Every structure is written in C-alpha cells, then in structure tokens.
Amino acid sequence: MSEGDAFKFLDKTSTTFQRDLIKALLKSKFSNPKTKISEDVIDIITELAKVMALEAAGRSAHIALMEKKKIVALEHVELILPQLMLDFS
C-alpha cells in the first residue's frame, strides 16, 4: 500500500463543527467579556478545524498502514500530533 492509500478516504469523508461550539470555545478564552468575534473569523476557524481533523486522520491512517494495522488507534494519532502542530503553527 502506498502513502496515497491512507488519504483515499478523504475524498469520501466530510466533517462538520458546530459554529456555536467554535464561537463558545473562542469566547471562553477572552479576558474581556465584551470582546466580539466576526462571523468571518468563526467561518475561518471552523474551516481550519475541519482541515486539521482531516489531516490528522490521514496521517494517522498512514502510520497504521505502515504498521500493517487495519484500525487507527490512539497511539497512531499520538505519533503524528507533534509534527501536525508544528505544520499548523
């Protein structure tokens, strides 16, 4: 199996994040309760969360394939997280 095989499922996969949840998470970190968030910012952060989730899934699947595993486990996700965080920083 090739590296591309690990990412084939992405063509058939979609993910969604609730905009209200993203907004609440952002607001929970504001020091000033009067701080406002534009709808465009919420849209961008929501899209970024989708991209990160799908990228993490693909990278984890790739590691599982290299280990000849049929199931992606937490250990596979843990292996890709440091580089994923660096790539998205």
From TrEMBL:
Belongs to the CENP-X/MHF2 family. The gene is LOC115886140. One of its GO terms (biological process) is kinetochore assembly. Signal peptide: none annotated. It comes from Sitophilus oryzae (Rice weevil). InterPro entries: CENP-X (IPR018552), Histone-fold (IPR009072). This is Centromere protein X. Keywords: DNA damage, DNA repair, DNA-binding, Nucleus. It holds the Pfam family CENP-X.
